[in-house]
Amino acid sequence: MIPIHFAPLQGYTDDVYRRIHHQLIGGIERYYTPFVRVEAGEIRSKDRRDIDPKNNEGVPVVPQIIFKSLKEFAYLVNEIEALGYHAIDLNMGCPFPLQAKHGRGSGILAHVNIIEEVAQAIKEHPQLDFSVKMRLGWDNANEWEPVLNILNDTPLTHITLHPRTGVLQYKGDIDYDAFARFYEECHHPIIYNGDLTTLEQLHDMEKRYPRLAGLMLGRGLLARPSLAKEYAEGKEWSHEEHIRNLRSLHQELADQYARIVKGDAQLHSKLRTFWEYTEPLIGRKPYKKIMKSGNLRNYMSAIEELR
Ligand SMILES: Cc1cc2nc3c(=O)[nH]c(=O)nc-3n(C[C@H](O)[C@H](O)[C@H](O)COP(=O)(O)O)c2cc1C
Predict the structure, then answer these.
(1) Does ligand 1 lie within 6 Å of residue 95's CB atom?
(2) CB 132 less than 6 A from any atom of ligand 1
(3) Same domain (yes/no): 243, 109
(4) In which domain, by residue range, is 245 found?
């Protein structure tokens, strides 16, 4: 069995979601925070809450940072180390044009000189465990090659690869040929990420790439929060088990977000987003009822009616 990692997903996998998922479901080796970035010279207060150790107690979490320069990297690493973390994940994959166009996320992959500076800085922080989450490139699926040459020579716990370019965003064919080449050439433990949504796919990846150190799942876990747990248990849950589980997960999310989010309208819109990927699990009609619920009261009764 390969360890399953929960991918960072801005707008979904914040501290509240991660804590509840870990307590109620689990099956996850590591959760990664959505990327923390420098804005107007500092870390946003929303991101500070997300990485505050008090909000992550008992959860195996790794903060992720995104940066375009050695200066941003050094600032974020110092801030996060000061909070008591020993592991930091480096985002070299984000495809959001707002980040990538400024040389962050997948936009940094073309800037080999900056990656060289960061690699040197990593060597100067032997007390920290660094990992990298990356794509093949921004618009060129060969950009990873010179980057991997540098990273192979840099102390890292692992590299997670999502084998698409940034311009493809989250759609388009996964480049399995490029992944196979990366798998052969990478000297670090590798975690595969991208489009895994079923137990069969997890087992298939296990067979195809026996040296994999892990599988990272994002949308697949939002669609089916128990997927990693089912994989660990070695059996698929029944429809009734899924529904019971989703209802308790969402009740807990409703209770905890009610303490943070102001007003019913905002709470409704926050809670509704967590159902976006669940149509295959709950069916079209209940899914539409939740997505079109319009207000908190209708939302709650749509959940009540789930069978
Ligand atoms: C809405 C959304 C937000 C994301 N936010 C992040 C992020 O903060 N950091 C990151 O490394 N990847 C982020 N990703 C990418 C995912 O971690 C993951 O690499 C991608 O969704 C592919 O995996 P999947 O097919 O299992 O979802 C995001 C993806 C989505 C759809």
Answers:
(1) no
(2) no
(3) no
(4) 239-304
d(CA 232, CA 253): 24
Query: How is residue 118 written in tokens?
Result: 């960061």
My answer on whether 138 and 253 are in the same domain is no
What pLDDT is recorded for position 182? 98
How many domains, the chain?
Answer: 2
Ligand 1 mutation pick, 159, 170, 195, max ligand atoms within 8 A of CB: 170
Same domain, 183 and 281: no
The model's pTM is: 0.98
Return the H-helix or E-strand segment holding 239: helix 239-258
Res 8: pLDDT: 98
Q: Where does a domain end: 233, 257, 274? A: 233
Ligand 1 atom 30, closest CA: 9
Pairing relationship of beta strands 38-39 and 64-65 according to DSSP bridges: unpaired
Q: Is the CB of 10 under 6 A from ligand 1?
A: yes
278 and 189 part of one domain:
no
Q: 218: CA distance to ligand 1 center in Å?
A: 6
Ligand 1 atom 12, closest CA = 8
CA distances in angstroms from 150 to 42, 68, 147, 186, 191, listed in the order given: 29, 17, 5, 11, 18
Q: What is the pLDDT of residue 14?
A: 98
State whether the beta carbon of 11 lies less than 6 angstroms from ligand 1: yes
In degrees, rounded to 5, the angle at the alpha carbon of residue 120 between the alpha carbons of residues 114 and 122 is 105
**CA 301 to centroid of ligand 1, rounded, Å:** 30
CB 162 less than 6 A from any atom of ligand 1: yes
**Whether 118 contacts 159, CB under 8 Å:** no
Residues 13 and 95 in one domain: yes
